[in-house]
Amino acid sequence: MAQRRTGPLARDAMAYVLAGGRGSRLMELTDRRAKPAVPFGCKSRIIDFALSNALNSGIRRIGVATQYKAHSLIRHMQRGWNFFRPERNESFDILPASQRVSEDQWYAGTADAVYQNLDIILSYGPQYMVILAGDHIYKMDYELMLQQHVNSGADVTIGCLEVPRMEATGFGVMAVDEQDRITAFVEKPKDPPAIPGNPEMALASMGIYVFETAKLAQWLREDAANPASSRDFGKDIIPFLVANGKAVAHRFTASCVRSEYETESYWRDVGTVDAYWEANIDLTETLPALDLYDTEWPIWTYSEVTPPAKFVHDLEGRRGSAVASLVSGGCIVSGASIKRTMLSPNVRVNSFSSLEEAVVLPSVHIERNVSLKKVVIDTSVRIPEGLVVGEDPELDAKRFRRTASGICLITQPMIDRLTS
Description:
The protein is of the alpha/beta class. 23% of the residues lie in helices and 28% in strands. The protein folds into 2 domains: 9-284, Alpha-Beta Complex (Spore Coat Polysaccharide Biosynthesis Protein SpsA, Chain A); 310-419, Hexapeptide repeat proteins (UDP N-Acetylglucosamine Acyltransferase, domain 1), CATH 2.160.10. The chain is built from 11 helices and 29 strands. Strands 1, 4, 5, 6, 8, 9, 10, 11 and 12 form a 9-stranded mixed sheet that branches. Strands 17, 18, 20, 21, 23, 25, 27, 28 and 29 form a 9-stranded mixed sheet that branches. Mean pLDDT is 94; it is low at 1-6. Its EC number is 2.7.7.27. Pathway: Glycan biosynthesis; glycogen biosynthesis. GO terms for molecular function: ATP binding; glucose-1-phosphate adenylyltransferase activity.
């Protein structure tokens, strides 16, 4: 288990979260919002994990670059992350693509999303930059990664996951020597390089990078002047530093934060409907792999003011009950039964309905005599009386977004087509 501490390196660092991606594999869940803004675990948004890691690590300067359909994400951060105080040398900047470099240029890539805001970054004078992806679920102490970066004398330190070698074909993969110095970086290789001494495992990039700010600014300016560059960390900046500088791998197991109840180094990319559903439903386990109840490493978020959750009716066949489920404030379970289900805030489930293995996003209203199994229901959907999902695969696939493993994503336009 990583030692939990904050130190002077984190106080001299700025976290910069890349949160502009759509996340198209989440299908209709990202029709109106960017992937980092998608709700997760009843109360949080996906981006809250990277932001909370930075805050809990002791970093007090944070920038978030947004681009694709950013309103939901920006509104969430304005409501939930507005407690930073300049008089304490703290800052929280939301940085939409605003054509600051050129009137016809949005963020062209991940490196460009930092380059276009260099003047803002440098005005704060951080000694180190921690570049983060805003769309993964994990708990990590970045202070420990900063310490390794300084102690190793690296030009860049890259956060890496140890994954089974042939499962690494969808990642950027590091070839390293015995001291974890990166000797090659390859994107989505068909034959991933193995970890020295562990031929069945490979090191996959987490999209987390640590740099000294002054050096990063120099490399970004040089990259911006190169017409052949795609302006991307993984495609341009990192391969350049592997070839011409010192790039070092930082293993996630060295800085993963785990409570006494967590047995694995938990990291999830919830970028598909199946992965998103599975990660949420896993939280209903008695001892889930991810402990959201760890008060020593809280996941900060916007907490809406809601009344208590309520369960009503106690008649046979019409009993408000929840088993192995997470139920948020503002929910009313009225004569309905739920099992292995997550109810986000302000959900109403009416009499004689049953939900099993359902991920229900905020403000959903479910009418009477509904039966739902293995579903994800988007925000503010109204489920009509008598709807049955999870019993007839062919019918489900005609009406909703059904994955190969049988998970159905339900949105309001899909419901509207049923009733039109």
